[in-house]
Amino acid sequence: MGCSKHEGVRGDSAELSAFAQQMLSEVNRVRTQPKEYAEVELKPLIKKGDQSKFQVALQGCYKALLTTEARKPLALHDALMLSAQWFADDYVKTKKIGHIGSDGSDVSDRVKRYTKVFGGYVGENCQYGLTEARAVVRSLVIDVDDDARGHRWNILHDKYTHMGVGFLKTKDVPYGSVVVQDFGWKHF
């Protein structure tokens, strides 16, 4: 998978497995304890009277999580891990933020390469520049740059049952790193 120039975790490494577990733990913390997450992780960051774009998004997230019902925890899924890592590695080729791969694929196409069990009911979050699971999840939940708060929506979507994580840290791309979270609803 990917280029030999990559630093940090790799798609088949024990490091990626550990990072994926940390990411899953943080995502499940938001899903299963949204009110507590808001109080512990977000409230200390709020600056009263500050109306910057970040503070507006942060305060909106804090209020939203206080009224969000707990969700079931997600589990990692190998196919979603492969899909997410493929896209993280592909970032070296495109050097573009977004959700379209160098081969024109979207998240649904990529997940279907590895499994059919999710039936196309999938979602994806990408975060650039952060390399610590807690910071990545906090950034995606606050979702400053997406007025629709789609990253938060993916993390909290009550139908999703599984996720996969891809991660790449390299000098060869803008921002120095990419984290990809792929989500899926496995029909039972």
Can you characterise this structure?
The chain is α+β, with helices and mostly antiparallel strands. The chain has one domain: CAP (Pathogenesis-related Protein p14a). The protein is 45% helix and 13% strand. It has seven helices and four strands. A four-stranded mixed β-sheet has the order 1-3-4-2, sandwiched between helices. The radius of gyration is 16 Å and the shape is globular. The protein starts with 13 loop residues before the first helix and ends with a strand. It comes from Candidatus [Bacteroides] periocalifornicus. This is SCP domain-containing protein.
Write the layout of secondary structure elements.
Elements (H helix, E strand, L loop, with lengths): L13 H19 L1 H9 L10 H14 L8 E2 L1 H17 L12 H8 L7 E7 L4 H10 L7 H7 L5 E8 L7 E8 L4
Parallel strand pairs: 1-3
Antiparallel strand pairs: 2-4, 3-4
Helix pairs in contact: 1-2, 1-6, 2-3, 4-5
Protein name: SCP domain-containing protein
InterPro entries: CAP_dom, CAP_sf
Short key terms for the protein model shown above:
SCP domain-containing protein, globular, four-stranded mixed beta sheet, 7 helices, Pathogenesis-related Protein p14a, alpha+beta, CAP_dom, 188 residues, 4 strands, CAP_sf
